[in-house]
Specification:
Order of helices and strands: HEEEHEHEEEHHHHHHHH
Number of helices: 11
Strand order of the largest sheet: 1-2-3-4-7-6-5
Shape: elongated
Strand content: 15-25%
Structural class: alpha/beta
Helix content: 40-55%
């Protein structure tokens, strides 16, 4: 992938939330070359301790370095995408090893491809051995690549975070009802994710209505200070009369305004 897209950025942020408070460090949108080529997510194990929550299906066996590429409902996972992932692995292995003569062992790395929908084109060109529902594994250049198809994963607690990226109404409903955030900023992340779905011109009307309903619920739960961050000063003042603005100023702000207007030869009292 040559440039991070909004859904890819949110995919990375969701992993950051998932591994909050664990020994797994999440790096996103790492530039691996002089000509910008980004790997979506790298999960780096920084400690030997157990991970205190069930991992999504297909991710149970993490290595020291885990490279993850992601294809949203707008994209197809094809053979070229997998070759790109292998290329990212080669570059990343070089960058993380002590030297070119002392490369970290291949066993320190695992490759994952997460796709929102089943890769039909890929399945026509290569066999996709199925490990379990929604999880497949193939080999390219002797490297195992775990393929996780979000739309086929069971509706279970460990898969909730990935179901946020399925773009299927029943799975999005399940994810909205069951996702438990691990960091305080997750509400904003989810709001951005559903806003991205809402702007997709190819999204079915029924799904758009559900997305809008979800956004309204998130907005209703956000604290006032978080809502204010999302609006420009102009938008905050839109629809308010001069009297309303003036009457909602603090006493100190009114005095400061009065001094400024007096210096300019005007009255502080709104007309």
């Amino acid at each position: 992938m040559t440039e991070p897209r909004p859904l890819h950025r949110l995919f990375g942020l969701s992993w950051m939330d998932f591994f909050q408070g664990t020994d797994i460090e999440v790096e996103t949108e790492i530039d691996l070359s002089l000509k910008q080529q980004f790997i979506d997510v790298v999960l780096i194990r920084r400690g030997p301790g157990p991970i205190p929550r069930p991992l999504p299906d297909g991710f149970e066996e993490l290595a020291a370095h885990n490279l993850v590429t992601f294809k949203s409902h707008q994209e197809a996972l094809d053979a070229w995408a997998l070759w790109e992932l292998v290329g990212h692995f080669v570059n990343y292995r070089k960058q993380t090893s002590p030297s070119m003569q002392e490369l970290l062992p291949e066993g320190d790395f695992r490759l994952f491809a997460v796709c929102a929908r089943f890769p039909d084109k890929l399945a026509k060109t290569v066999k996709l051995p199925k490990l379990r529902e929604g999880v497949f594994e193939i080999r390219l250049a002797a490297l195992p690549i775990r393929i996780v198809v979000v739309s086929q994963l069971p509706q279970t607690d460990q898969n909730v975070m990935l179901h946020l990226f399925s773009a299927r109404e029943e799975l999005l409903r399940y994810a909205r009802a069951h996702y438990q955030p691990y960091s305080k900023d997750t509400s904003s992340l989810l709001l951005e994710l559903f806003a991205e779905y809402n702007e997709d011109p190819d999204m079915p009307d029924k799904l758009k209505a559900f997305v809008q309903e979800t956004m309204n619920k998130f907005l209703g739960k956000l604290p006032p200070e978080e809502l204010r961050k999302r609006l420009s000063v102009r938008d905050r003042l839109k629809g308010l009369s001069v009297d309303e603005v003036f009457n909602n100023l603090s006493p100190q702000a009114r005095k400061a305004l009065a001094r400024k207007l007096k210096a300019n030869g005007s009255s502080a009292k709104p007309h």
